[in-house]
Design brief:
Structural class: mainly alpha
Radius of gyration: 23 Å
Oligomer: single chain
Helix content: over 70%
Number of strands: 0
Distance between the termini: 81 Å
Order of helices and strands: HHH
Shape: elongated
Length: 55
């Protein structure tokens, strides 16, 4: 049995871990931009919820 071919192949667990970390960072970046948009203009961001007028 030749172990050199096994060591040169990509480890599946390591690939899943790297993909998970990349997706986590992308989610974090999206949340940062959404929160910054909310802080910049909170009334525009909250107008997406349809609330009936009180009168």
């Amino acid at each position: 049995m030749d172990d050199s071919s096994l060591s040169s192949s990509i480890d599946v667990d390591k690939g899943f871990a790297i993909a998970f970390v990349i997706l986590l960072f992308l989610f974090l970046i999206v949340m940062i931009f959404r929160c910054a948009k909310l802080v910049k203009n909170p009334y525009e961001a909250s107008s997406t919820t349809a609330e009936p007028p009180l009168s």
